[in-house]
Structure formats: structure tokens, C-alpha cells
Design a protein that fits this description.
The protein has about 500 residues and is of the alpha/beta class. The protein is about 35% helix and about 15% strand. The structure holds flavin-adenine dinucleotide.
Amino acid sequence: MGEFRETFDAVVVGSGPNGLSAAVALAQQGASVLVLEAADEIGGGTRTAALTLPGFVHDVCSAVHTTGILSPFFRSLPLGDHGLQWIVPRASVAHPLDAQPAVMMWRSLEETCEGLGADASSYRSLIEPFLDNSEGFFADALGPLSWPRHPGMFTRFGLNAMWPATSFAAWRFQQSRAKALFAGCAGHSILPLDKLFTAALGLIFAIAGHVEPWPVAAGGSQAIPRALGSLLRSLGGQIRTGVRVTSAADLPAARVYLFDTSPDQLATVAEPALPNGYLRRLRRYRYGPGAFKLDWALDGPIPWRDPDCLEASTVHLGGTLEEIAASEATMFRGGHSEKPYVLLCQQSQLDPTRAPPICRAQVDGPRTLGKPANEWHGDGSPSRMSRAIMLMADYHCSPIWEPGADAYNVSLDVALSNDLLGARPLQPRRVLGHLAALKCKRPQRHNGDQAGWCDSEYPNGGSRGRHGTRVVPSLGAPLGALISGAIQPSS
Ligand SMILES: Cc1cc2nc3c(=O)[nH]c(=O)nc-3n(C[C@H](O)[C@H](O)[C@H](O)COP(=O)(O)OP(=O)(O)OC[C@H]3O[C@@H](n4cnc5c(N)ncnc54)[C@H](O)[C@@H]3O)c2cc1C
């Protein structure tokens, strides 16, 4: 790092949304900040690229930003002035079921209830109490684990959220449609749905859909890191891309180092500076399941059997509650389901810039795998992908491009560095583990330097900047004192 003669207040390694958020939070308080990014572009899993045919752009990982649009931290930033524009669909979710209209989660609670038959009033009474003060609810639900600012509402949430999604849905709803809708939302947890607390994500995602329908970013998810990067530069922060930090020698002088990387990488880079106990914990870190996704260039909108499906940013392909639960349980055991639960995002339905006018369809579909992210190296992928392709065929769409190794590897590379999707905190053992780890993840002091971890695996789940900003107040005096208090938790 010979090019940097100055000493920075903070160096952030990694420019995913969390790294950039941490950098912005520091720069807002007048700290001098440098972000180092290994890739040629900023954004990490929130990048967008031409992965298929000319004229089509795809989100490399994150596509639909359910909690991004609701993130208190993002909402506190002038990201619109830096080019971020959310596009909100009419419906967050379409959930096709055999031989009946798709279950739709419209923005309107009433319209949604109309499709839920006998379960309409039960669904309404589940969601409605959170809509009056949804801002307060999301500040508590998506913020750090602490005493809630709205204890009444949060207790109501907790009493529902603590259950396994399967038993909660079976108890709460009588019919398959509402059960399936709830299971699809809970399936974002990437956990077997009979685990305690899996109802939490189902509930959060359902409430979100009636507050701000699950949006995409105009032009691609990369608009999010671009806006954060532009804001950071306007605050005096610096970003260097194409710089992979492999050892402490690669780091310029700074008072604080933040790592938006996997725990393994932090352990390797900062080994000389970190206490043995902390290193052991980082190395013992248990990774969550891996994921792959397929990117499709289609010759037109998907001809769903139920055309309402075109109104949703996300289509849950997985069938009934029982089928989704079986798929997720198989995946968690290390197997692969013959009828996998797939999240299908149809960004080009909302954002015409994603595909050429004559085609106007581009689809991304992430799917989890039965192996931890750090152990999966793409083995068995063709058969897994072909099952997912068959599943797409079931739903009558005709690709003009089929996924190739290049696009596949792009996703994989990020997935491996990323440890996905924030599922872990929903497991009580992990919550407790994280609380313990929280102590050790507090920045470590060594010869005056401090290092902290601000990746999306920082408790408690999700992405969208919260983890990045959350670690900042814990940096300790004097920098922490300088910036704490100004940091709002986000998700
Ligand atoms: C297939 C898939 C689909 C997803 N879909 C969604 C979705 O629809 N909605 C959603 O909200 N989330 C989604 N996610 C999750 C989302 O992408 C992540 O939560 C988010 O990207 C995490 O951000 P981060 O800042 O913690 O880390 P990352 O995005 O992983 O960024 C880390 C950055 O650090 C860089 N880096 C790593 N090591 C080094 C090093 N040694 N030196 C320098 N730089 C380094 C990497 O290059 C990368 O740019 C998806 C993830 C996957 C894999």
C-alpha cells in the first residue's frame, strides 16, 4: 500500500453494501475512510452484470430488496440524490398452486385477503396490528438485538415469531392457500420450516409486503452500492477497486480496520494482530448453506398460467406448505429436493432497462443447496441446474438463452465469499452463539490498532447496510465516541 502515505481513521476491506454502509457512517462523522475492494467494481453480492445475451442485465446475487427499502439507515441517507431509485411492484409475491389461481400478496391487505378464502380474517388480524406504526416495528425488528422501543408491538411479534413456520401456519390457517403463502415467505430463512423462530421471517416478509412491496432497484441492484459509493466520495471517502487484501502488509496505516469479508478472511489477514481466542472463534465459524442461481434471457414475459403472476417482483415456486417444508428439510440435511423451492425474480417486468424491448424478460432464480457455502465448489451443478430448468419448463417459459458456466461461476464466486442470506440468527442456538460472538467480534485491540467485522453475517441477519453501520458504534474511544449516537440500525 505504498501509494497511501497518510494514516486513515478507518480502512474498510470489502465494498459490499455493509462495507460501504460502515464507510458512509464513519465518513458522515468526519472520519477519513478508505475502502479496499478486490473486484474491479464495488458492490459485492449487490452487483449487476451482463451475464447472458447482449442487452440483458442481471443482478449477480441480490435482486429484490425487501428490507433494503425499509432499512432505517438507508432511509436516513440521500441515496436518491446519488441515483438510487426503487421500483415498487403491485404485488410482492405470486405463489402458483396447481389447478387454482396463484395466491397473490398485493400491497393492499384487503385485496390479498380476497384471495385467501376462509383464512382472510385470520391473515388480516395477523398483519394489520403492525401496519399502524410499521416504521417503529421495522426499527425494532431489523435493528440490533436490544430492548425494543415499541415493547407492546414487539411482544405481539415475538409471540408469533417464535414458532416453527410449519406449526404456526397449520395453527393459524385452515386452507392451503394462506399456508402456502406464509411458507413461501418463511422459506427465505433457508432453514427447515419446523425449526423454532422460522415464523419470524415469514411474518416480517409478509408485513413488509403490505408496507413497501418488495422492490427492485432501477437499472439493477448495483444502483445501491453505486449510490453508497457516490455518497461516500461526496463525504470525502476514498474507494480503491482491484485491491485484494491478503495480509496485514496490504493494509495502509489506520486507526480502525473493518472487514466486510468472511470470518476466514479476517482471520487470515489479521492473524498477527488478533488474540488467539478470537482467531479460534473466527475459524470455528459454521457456514450456512450455499446457493446457486440461474439467469435467464427470455423471448417475452413468462406465460404464467395465471397472468397475475406477472405483477409480482418475486414468484415463489414450491407448491404447498408441506412441499416447501419437505424441500427445505432435504436441503438442510445435505440432500437435494426433486421439487425444490425456488425464488424467481422477474425484474424486467418492473424495470424496462433490464432487457431489450423485443424480449422484455429477464429472470433470476436463486436456490439454496444442501452444502455449506464454504464447502461447495460447484460439484453436481449440471444435474441440479437441470432440475431447476425442468421446473421452469413446468411453468411454461421458453428460454432464448440457457445458463452457461460463466454466469454460474460469477454467482458462485460471490456466494462463497458471502455466506448467504442471513439465515442463522433465526436458530436460537445461533442467536445465543452470536450474542457470545458479539463480544469477541467487538474490535480487537493490538498495538493501538482495532479490527472489526461488518459483514452480513454479523448478528442478526439480512443485509442492506445494518451490519456495516452496527459495528461502527462499537469501535471504542476515541473514534467510537466520535461517531456513536449518530448511527441508526438498518437492515
Ligand atoms: C444468489 C444470491 C441471491 C441473493 N438474493 C438476495 C436478494 O434478492 N435480496 C437480498 O436482500 N439479498 C440477497 N442476497 C444476499 C446479499 O447478496 C448479501 O446479503 C449481501 O451482498 C451481503 O453484503 P455484504 O456487504 O455483507 O458482503 P458482500 O456483498 O459479499 O461483499 C463483500 C465484498 O468484499 C470483497 N472482498 C472479499 N474479500 C476481500 C479481500 N480480501 N480484499 C478486498 N476485498 C474483498 C468482495 O469482493 C465483495 O465485494 C443474495 C445472495 C445470493 C448469493
